[in-house]
Structures are given as C-alpha cells and as structure tokens.
Amino acid sequence: ATPTALLVGTGRGARLGILIKGADVLEDTRRIDTVVLDKTGTVTSGEMTLVDVATAGRLPKDQALRAAAAVETGSEHPVARAIVAAATSRAIEAPRATDFASLPGAGARAAIKGTEVTVGRADLFDDVPQELARPTVDGTTVWVGWGGRAHASLTVADTVRRSSQRAVRDLAELGLPAYLLTGDHDQAALTVARDVGIPVGRVIADVRPEDKHAMIADLQKRGKVVAMVGDGVNDAAALAQADLGIAMGTGTDVAADSADIVLLRSELPAVVDAIELSRATLRTIK
Ligand code: ADP
Ligand code: MG
C-alpha cells in the first residue's frame, strides 16, 4: 500500500472522529471478520440508574442503600455511580467509609464504623439468603452485606444506546458477526443481546476481567480475525489481544492506550465507519 493513500485514509478518519494510531492499522481493520463488543459503556451508555432494592429480614431499604453508597463513594464503576446517585437523590447521607478496596470485575469493599461492608457479585458472599438469591427485576443486580452474608440486593439498569442496534445490523451486512462479551451475569447480558439483535450463541457472559483476553484468544484459535470494542480498564488486555482494538473515547485512558483506534464519537456506528473507511482506502490503493 502506498503511504500517501494510507495517510489520506487516516486523515479522513480523524475528520470522522476516528483516531487511527498509525497507517498500518487500516490494513488490520480490513482483515477482521468478527467483532466482539463489551456490554457496559460500549453497547450500553454505561449510565445506570437504581431500579430496585430488596432486603432480607427487617433491614430497612434506606439503610441498605446508605451502607452501599458509603462503600461505592470510593468506586468509579458505573454500578457504583448509580448507587451513590440514588442515595443522594433520596437525601440519604452516607457515613464515611475507610479502607476502601476495589475488587475489579466483582465489586468493592470498605469499613464503616469498624464493620467491613462488601458490595458486588453474589459470589463475594458465603451466604446469600433464599429471598435475595433470585432477582425479579431486569438489570444488573449486586448484593450488599457484611460478616460473609448478603443482607440486601440492589438492581441497576442501563440503557442500550439507540445507535447500537443499527450498528449490529450494519456489521452483519458487512459480513461481520457481533459477539457480546461481559463480566455481568447471563440474564443482564441476554436482555441487552436481545435488544440489539445479537443471538444467544454469541453471548459470552460472567467473564472475569482477567479472562476477557482469553475469550478473544479462543476466537482467534478458531481462525477468527477479531476486532474488540471496549471502554473499561477491564477491557485493556482484551483490546491488546485482539487483532484490532477499538476504544470508546468516553472510556478510560487505559483502554484508549491499549487500542489501535479510538472513537471520539462514542457510538458503535463509528466502528462501521472505520471498517468502511479502511475498505475504501485500501481499494483505491490496489
Ligand atoms: P462489564 O464487563 O459489563 O463492563 P465489569 O467487568 O466491570 O463489567 O464488572 C462485572 C460485574 O462485577 C458487574 O456487572 C457487577 O456485578 C460487579 N461489579 C464490578 N464493580 C463493582 C462495584 N464497584 N460495585 C458493585 N458491583 C461491581
Ligand atoms: Mg465496559
């Protein structure tokens, strides 16, 4: 390929809000045959709101939310931000927490008046009472508890970006099947997949952050040339593992640093534009 044509291509990308790191990235873009999409913050807006609180025994809902918000004040995760925002909007004042620890891909932990409180996935607790085990509301459920036991569940819901469905369809028309990859549980993943038209067989859920890149490697072992689109710290290794890493501009710096392409317009149709641009640029070269 001539360097001039590739430079023109990257220049055109920049005007479309598609930051292409190096001219050879366009050639990698043309080779891909599979696109893996992170769920939270990529297919969805990542702006979550609290939709349900359930408690065990006689624990007041406000108290569960207060404890969760105290812990989550230390976290940047979209689930954490939704919990803190819900407490604030209900005028619930969260006590100060100390010894905050983030548990990537699982939750967060902190001490409130000497008690260690955990918020996150069910498997962080030794014991989840029957009445809290099966969330009945659509969304992402996390549990809050102490002493090894979950005492309440909080469900947050995210909105699918309106443009995501169109992008999945356009990718299919370009001959590129889309996969959904997430650390969230099955139910939440399937709801989003159904919304955007990704079949059940291409949903990979309950994946730990440290395993996301292995899922990409798996697809590569099956002969696929994979583009990964993500936004989070937990996506960085997968973005690096993929044949082409694409980061959402609204995402974290770590994700952007690991990617080959950064989308300043954080919408999936920009992925389609990038692929069409690479095809058009390389066609003029031949
Ligand atoms: P995704 O792959 O969808 O971007 P993550 O890998 O960041 O999600 O997190 C996976 C799951 O771990 C979340 O769906 C949530 O259940 C839980 N989780 C992660 N961080 C937190 C947190 N700060 N508070 C509560 N739950 C969390
Ligand atoms: Mg994400």
TrEMBL record:
Give the coiled coil ranges.
none
Subcellular location(s) of the protein: Cell membrane
Going by the entry's taxonomy, the superkingdom of the source organism is recorded as Bacteria
The family annotation for this protein states: Belongs to the cation transport ATPase (P-type) (TC 3.A.3) family. Type IB subfamily.
| Protein name per its UniProtKB record | Heavy metal translocating P-type ATPase
Q: Which organism is it from?
A: Ornithinibacter aureus
Describe which stretch of the whole protein the shown chain covers, with first residue, last residue and complete length. 454 to 739 of 791
